[in-house]
Design goal:
Blueprint: H1 3-12, H2 51-76, E1 80-91, H3 92-97, E2 104-111, E3 117-121, H4 123-133, H5 150-171, E4 178-185, E5 199-209, E6 212-221, H6 222-225, H7 246-258, E7 264-267, H8 275-279, E8 297-301, E9 304-314, E10 317-325
Antiparallel strand pairs: 1-5, 2-3, 2-4, 3-6, 5-6, 7-8, 8-9, 9-10
């Protein structure tokens, strides 16, 4: 290389751009995906029944509860209110240990399904219903804590038969069943139809008869209806349509109530008397009152004043003639 070429090299260096300074920058972090909520799974209580199936069972037994209430009212000849409380899934052991002892624990055979269902009727409502069928007036003051006698068991079977009849009708859109009662037990802890951890569907109803109330539980092991899973969905299940219209059910109840016996009392006279005079009463004594003999008499039906009547005789028998109705007492709003 000659001298001129060597002298040109330094001159060309300033014309070249200086390299940009290199700075160390922190590595950019990748955006993290939002964390998903982790739900703990309880292997002791597996949820084998889908939400859609639970909704179908809920709708099915809502219609069943209404029709069972109508049948029960006709059987007892009084108003029986029936309401669906809940439809849940739990284990068989949880269901059994939630019941009182003794109870009316009915083992059912839902042919053609395999296995057993359970119908439990609480004594707090069963004994008042038995009293009603025997002509008594149910009271909620006390509940008997003993197993059913043979006579009480036969009367309880009437309630069970009405329940099973309406239950088969409720399920007929899903499967035609003939539900039979196998036997009745008083201690549910001695009966094991499935393993303790087996999942069951529990249908709970509340019954109100007069002043008494109690629960009726239907226990359906899921393995007995598992093969019906496709039918218990909103796409394939049409819902429960009552076989009887509301008007027909009303006429049936009215026909049963029309045959009920009611006590009619005609009050001849009422007065006050001292205890000493009461103790000294003898045959032939006359008790005077302030009531005029020309006044009408009060006629009560089932303890409620309904009519005013005049006494007399008809075809050789003592009788009264209704002359007016008794006006119910009016209540003033405070």
């Amino acid at each position: 290389m000659d001298a001129g070429g060597a002298a040109q090299v330094p001159e060309t260096q300033p014309a070249m751009p200086d390299p940009e300074p290199q700075f160390s920058s922190p590595t950019a972090e990748k955006p993290t995906a939002p964390r998903q909520r982790v739900v703990a799974y309880d292997f002791k209580r597996p949820e084998r029944v889908g939400k859609e199936q639970m909704r179908a069972l809920q709708s099915l037994h809502e219609g069943f509860a209404r029709n069972f209430g109508a049948s029960l009212s006709a059987l007892l000849r009084t108003i029986a209110e029936t309401k669906l409380i809940s439809v849940d899934q739990l284990t068989y052991s949880e269901f059994v240990y939630s019941l009182e002892i003794p109870t009316c624990f009915n083992l059912l055979r839902p042919a053609p399904l395999q296995g057993n269902w359970i119908l439990d009727i609480s004594p707090s409502i069963l004994y008042p219903m038995i009293d009603r069928m025997l002509g008594g007036n149910p009271s909620s003051d006390s509940t008997l804590k003993r197993p059913l006698s043979e006579i009480e068991l036969r009367l309880a079977n009437r309630v069970t038969s009405a329940f099973l009849r309406e239950l088969a009708s409720a399920w007929e859109n899903t499967i035609q069943m003939s539900i039979q009662l196998e036997r009745v037990e008083s201690n549910p802890q001695l009966v094991q139809i499935v393993p303790p951890n087996e999942v069951v569907v529990l249908v709970s109803l509340e019954l109100v008869v007069g002043k008494s109330r109690g629960t009726v539980n239907l226990c359906i092991p899921f393995n007995t209806i598992e093969r019906l899973g496709n039918k218990l969905t909103s796409n394939n299940w049409k819902g429960y349509t009552p076989t009887k219209s509301d008007q027909q059910a009303t006429r049936q109840i009215e026909a049963q109530i029309d045959q009920s016996a009611l006590e009619v009392v005609v009050e001849l006279v009422k007065t006050d008397i001292r205890a000493v005079d009461l103790l000294n009463l003898q045959v032939g004594d006359i008790i005077t009152t302030d009531k005029d003999c020309r006044h009408t008499l009060d006629v009560s039906i089932a303890g409620v004043s309904k009519f005013q009547a005049r006494p007399g005789a008809f075809k050789g028998r003592k009788a009264v003639e209704i002359v007016s109705t008794t006006q119910p007492p009016t209540t003033r709003n405070s």
